[in-house]
Each structure stands twice: as structure tokens, then as C-alpha cells.
Amino acid sequence: MGLGECLKSQVLCQVLISYVFLASGLLINLLQLCTLPVWWLNKSLARRINCRLGYCISSQSVAILDWWSGTECTLYTDPKMYPLYGNENGIVVLNHQFEIDFMCGWSFCDRFGVLGSAKVLVKKELAYVPVIGWMWYFLEIVFCKRKWEEDRITVSQSLQKLRDYPENFWFLLFCEGTRFTAKKHQISMEVAEKKGLPKLKHHLLPRTKGFWVTIQNLRGTVAAVYDSTLNFRNNESPSLSGILSGKKYHADLYVRRIPLESIPEGEAECAAWLHKLYQEKDGFQEQYIQTGRYPGPIVSTPRRLGPLINWLCWSALVLFPLGAFLVSLLSSGSTLTILASLAFCYGGQCPPFKPHARGILCHARPLDYFVIF
Ligand SMILES: CC/C=C\C/C=C\C/C=C\C/C=C\C/C=C\C/C=C\CCC(=O)SCCNC(=O)CCNC(=O)[C@H](O)C(C)(C)COP(=O)(O)OP(=O)(O)OC[C@H]1O[C@@H](n2cnc3c(N)ncnc32)[C@H](O)[C@@H]1OP(=O)(O)O
Ligand SMILES: CCCCCCCCCCCCCCCCCC(=O)OC[C@@H](O)COP(=O)(O)O
Known about the structure:
Elements: H1 3-8, H2 11-34, H3 36-41, H4 43-68, E1 72-77, E2 90-94, H5 101-111, E3 119-123, H6 132-138, E4 142-144, H7 148-161, E5 170-173, H8 182-195, H9 209-218, E6 224-232, H10 240-244, E7 250-259, H11 267-291, E8 298-299, H12 306-332, H13 335-347
Parallel strand pairs: 1-7, 2-5, 2-6, 3-4, 3-5
Antiparallel strand pairs: 1-8, 6-7
The structure holds ligand LV5NTVZW and [(2~{R})-2-oxidanyl-3-phosphonooxy-propyl] octadecanoate.
């Protein structure tokens, strides 16, 4: 094991990364709160400031993925479409199978300059999570309760507000509505059978209402749907704890750009269109599993330095007071205080976290609970 790998596997490093994320995140949440008066004076300026502040938080997860773990994210797409990515608004339809799928999504957002403004239709529970949830509130993320009677009004209202958003954005939709597990797959295929729809092997049956309401409300604002299918090489089962301990994964993302005009307007037609899209996505996954490749060429999208620089700056800012505190603690000379501090630092160390299947958390260390939501 090299020095780098040895360092990355240290629990202390993972604790420090988490400390930087939480301390700087809360500080940024506070700065976001301070932008409230700006909303009344100049809404567009407030939104732009919040995009930058949001970037400071979400790019830390990109830095950990791209630079700390060294995970490679490869893009398969039509090179002719490449210049459009990041220069127009898009609705991203992504499969929801991996614990770190959103981190790979964020990494691609960064590579195309839309990380700060990235949007998602997310379950309401996440709005209350400090740092990420509070950041999302200021970024006008769309929350849903997964109760259509309530969502049809609130989701539409939130989407309408994005019509005059001052920056290009990608709006992410996990149409499956929940992360893939074997049990959920079995139930959803029973629903497919009842509805007379073809069975899917690698996806859950998509929920169509969120997609339809998004298309309906963002027509004229968004140029295209980016149909995106993600998988990992060599049957890797990536996890956040793996990323934190510096494990390198290999993500492959296949993106097709579908102009919004080609998507039907009526609810039933739009739903049928989405079901057909998921049947095609299922075919792409099958091809990937059989051949290790998606169709089409690979386009180079190198990781960017921005997230690393941002991460180093925030680390310096929040680690300095922590270092000063520890020095003053050590110089106090109280053996009891020093022993208590050491016990606190290492007390959270449990046996390694092992997911027994993709996406299922079965034995988590304290830090893993952060993403169990
Ligand atoms: C170039 C590079 C390109 C791309 C880069 C990639 C990405 C980057 C982009 C952006 C990144 C930004 C941010 C990412 C950061 C973090 C995000 C992380 C995680 C978020 C995870 C979530 O929160 S997912 C959960 C929330 N989202 C959703 O639920 C969306 C999908 N759901 C819907 O659309 C729903 O319809 C709804 C929520 C709007 C309403 O739900 P409800 O349940 O009330 O209604 P439904 O219509 O869905 O349900 C009733 C119908 O469903 C049928 N049914 C019943 N059981 C099932 C079943 N098991 N499976 C399928 N269908 C079922 C039932 O029969 C009803 O059918 P009807 O025919 O009667 O309608
Ligand atoms: C404390 C550790 C910090 C270390 C720094 C690393 C940065 C990591 C950033 C973490 C950001 C967390 C974003 C929350 C995303 C949650 C994804 C999620 O919630 O997926 C599950 C849902 O789809 C389905 O939920 P269910 O249908 O099971 O209900």
C-alpha cells in the first residue's frame, strides 16, 4: 500500500473531510440566509449569488469523487451534441441504482459549468437535512411528497418559478422514484404486468406523472431531455464510504439528447413515451452488461481543478480554528482532556461498512447515516 492509499484509509482523514464539509456547509448556509434581503431588491442577483454559494457546497462532493477517490467518469454521447451541453437548459432522466449516482451527476454538471444551478425533483424529507437540504431551499430545488394529490399543485408551482431562472440549469428526474432494489423491482414488475407493459430487467417501472408535469411546465424554458444511463465497470458496487476512504471507481454515462418538441403533450401520450424510453434504457444496460460498452463514441470530459481549489480553500478556512483549538488543548496539559479527545476522535470507528447488495445499506459507520435518507 502506497503512502497516498494509507493516508486515504485513515479514519482521521475521513473525519476531517466530513468536518470540513459540515463546518463549511453550515457557514455557507448562513451566508445563503444573509442573501434573503437581496431577494427583495434584486431577485436575479440573489439567485446568481446562491448559485455560487451552492457551488461551494456541492463541488466539495465532486472534489472528493474526482480528486480524493480519483473515480473516473466517462461520457458516451454524440460529439455533435457536446457543444450544446451546459449552453441550454435540459431535463436529465437518469436511472437510480447506485449510492453515488448523484455525485457522478454533479461531477458532469461541473464539467459543463452548471453545477451551481443544478436542479432536481427530490423527496421532501431531504429539505430538512442540514447543509444539503438547506442549500437546496435557496437553490429553488423542487420538493415532492410522492403524494400526487398534493404534488400536482406544489411541483407545478415550483417548476413555474424556474421559467425566468437567470442561469442555464439541468433539472434531474429519477423517474423510478426510488433507488433500485431486487424487492422493489419485483413489485414494480407486478404493476407493469397489471398495466400490460413490457417488463424491464434493469429498471423499476418509471413513475410518469412527475415527468409529464415537468415537461408541461418547462416547455419553452428547457430545450431538450438528456436521457442518461449510468453504470459502473467490472460490476463495481460504489458507495459513499468507499469514496471517502479513497476507493477509485469507474463510471460510464450514456447520454442522448432528445429535443423537447419531439415529446408528446398529452398526459397519456407522454406517459407512453416515457415507458418506451425506459424500455430503450433497459436495452442499453443489457448491452453494457454484455459488452462493457454503451453505443456511440466516448467524448473526453476531463475533471476540473475548480472543485479541488474550492475544497482546499474551505479546508484551510475551517481547519485553521480546529488546529488552533487542538493546540490550545494539548498545551493545557490536562491528561484527562487529552485522553477524552482521543477517545472521541477514534470512538466512532466500527467494523468496515459492507453493502450486501447494490444500494442497500446494511451495516453503516456513523458517517454513512448521513446518506441513508
Ligand atoms: C451530459 C451529462 C448529462 C447528465 C448528467 C447527469 C445528471 C446531473 C443533473 C443534475 C444533478 C442535480 C442534483 C442531484 C443531487 C442529488 C439528488 C439525489 C437524490 C434524489 C433522490 C430522490 O429524492 S428520488 C424521489 C423523488 N423523486 C421522484 O419520485 C420522481 C419520480 N416520481 C414521480 O414522478 C411521481 O409520479 C410523483 C412523485 C410526482 C407522484 O408520486 P405518486 O406516488 O403520488 O404518484 P404516481 O403516479 O407515481 O403513483 C401512482 C401510479 O403509480 C402506479 N404504481 C404503483 N406502484 C408502483 C410501482 N411500484 N412502480 C411503478 N408504478 C407504480 C400506480 O398504479 C399508479 O398508476 P396510474 O396509472 O394509476 O397513475
Ligand atoms: C458527513 C459526510 C460528508 C462527507 C462529504 C462528502 C459529500 C457528500 C455529499 C452528500 C450529499 C447528500 C445528498 C443527498 C442525496 C440522497 C440520495 C437519496 O436520498 O437517495 C434515496 C432516494 O432516491 C430514494 O429514497 P427512498 O425511496 O428509499 O425513500
